[in-house]
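A further point concerns the way the authors explain their paired sequence and structure data. Nothing conveys this as quickly as seeing an actual entry. An entry of this sort, consisting of the sequence and the corresponding C-alpha cells, reads as follows:
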Amino acid sequence: MELTVLVADDHAGYRAGLTRAIRAWTGLRLVAEAGDGVSALRLIEECDPDLALIDVRMPELNGLELCAQLKPEHHTRVLLLSAFMDERLAAQALASGAADCMSKDAPREQICRNLIAIADRGRRSPTSG
C-alpha cells in the first residue's frame, strides 16, 4: 500500500529535493505540493493525504499554525521540518498536533524513513483515525 504525501515549503529548491526523494521512495506517493501554509492547508483538505511534510517557517500560515487549524477528525499525520530545531520547537510542534518534528538538515532518506514510521505509529495508535 502506498502512502500519499503532501509537501509544503516556501523554498522551491528545497521542496524540489523533497519531492524527488518522495517520488523515488518505495511506498510513498506524492499527491500535492505547496509553497505556503494557506495553500498547504487547502490541499490537505482537498487531497486528504496520509502524510504531510510541512516547513515550520512559511508565509501566510506557518507550520505550527497549520497543524493547529487541521480539524481534529482529519487523519493526515504531519511531520514538521525546521532549519532551526531545538527542544522548545519540538515541544511546540507536538502541542500543535504534529506527529513529529525534525531538522531540515537531515538526509532525505531519513526524512522518508520518518514519514513511514509516523504512518506506522498512526495505524497502531488506538486514538488515531
User: Anything to note?
Assistant: The first strand starts at residue 3 and ends at 8. The helical segments are 12-24, 37-47, 63-69, 87-96, 108-124. Residues 108-124 form the longest helix (17 residues). The beta strands are 3-8, 28-34, 51-55, 77-82, 100-103.
